[in-house]
Write a structure and sequence with these properties.
The protein is mostly helical and 98 residues long. Helix content is 67%, strand content 0%. It has one domain. It is globular and about 40 Å long.
Length: 98
């Protein structure tokens, strides 16, 4: 496991969570939005390898390709997209109460 790749994935997931919370007007605190984003970003990277057509599209945060530009970009995209999606879904399911 490469700590730099993992750090990039976690930070971008947290950023995606904040973005998702901002887009939905969620009343969750910043910490909760970031935690949701981290879980979503890491979860998307883990699950995407099993979905036909998108396997390999989202980088696994523990894959160890941090020093290549494509590895960095993949980590930022997978964390950001996954974090935004999960935060958006959670905000809509909770009815902006959480």
């Amino acid at each position: 496991m490469d700590l730099i790749s993992l750090g990039i994935g976690l930070l971008s997931g947290g950023g995606g969570g904040l973005l998702g919370g901002k887009l939905t007007g969620s009343s969750m605190g910043k910490g909760a939005q970031m935690l949701t984003g981290i879980v979503g970003g890491t979860g998307l990277a883990a699950v995407s390898q099993y979905i036909p057509g998108i396997s390999g599209l989202f980088a696994d945060p523990s894959a160890g390709a941090a020093f290549s530009p494509s590895g960095i970009l993949g980590g930022v995209i997978s964390g950001g997209v996954g974090g935004t999606i999960l935060s958006f879904i959670l905000s809509k399911v909770m009815g902006n109460k959480a």
